[in-house]
User: What shape does this take?
Amino acid sequence: MTITEIYQQFIIDLTNTTWYEYVAVITGIASVWFSRKENILVYPVGLISTIIFIYLSFKGSLLGEATVNIYYTVMSIYGWFLWAKKDQQHNHVIHITNASKKEWVQHLTFFSVFYVAIFYALNYLKRDFAPGAIPWADAFASATAFTGMWLMTKKKIESWYWWIATNFASIPLYFVKHYVFTSFSYVVLLIMAFAGLFEWMKRKQLRQ
Assistant: This one.
């Protein structure tokens, strides 16, 4: 596609954006802002976004992304519980930390298993149920998001690396599906992910 064609598609699809996609995008961006600030509101606000995106993903044949948002919804409830948990001295139990080498191996294994599973599942579903699916791209965006969300509940700095990868993959993925406002939001989320990475690194250093 030429730059002119991309611009024309952006304008046409933007005019067709539904109000609930706007709500999903705005609450999604807000949840990332709260995450960057290590604010527990990341979870209740994020739940609004993920529930709407479940519907949008199924509607757009983004089955991998639909699975991700179902997973987000479950993990948001789990993360909400973990971030709120306190010890007997009323101090929060979960703090920002770096992953060990052993944990990195676990993270890469976690990502690989989900990538392979989602890729083959989408290849199968593409034939009869989701002709618009893009298995390799959808699987990558989904598996990185699965990993990032898992690590975020444990306040691991490395979660931001996975979010950065997810955002890079999701920008073109949603654009070709004509969810241009969502695609544009991933550009914003990508910038915020880098900001979140540096913010969490700084917060960890201040607590040492």
The chain has eight helices and no strands. The chain has a mean pLDDT of 87. The two ends are 50 Å apart (CA to CA). Residues 161 and 197 are 8 Å apart (CA to CA).
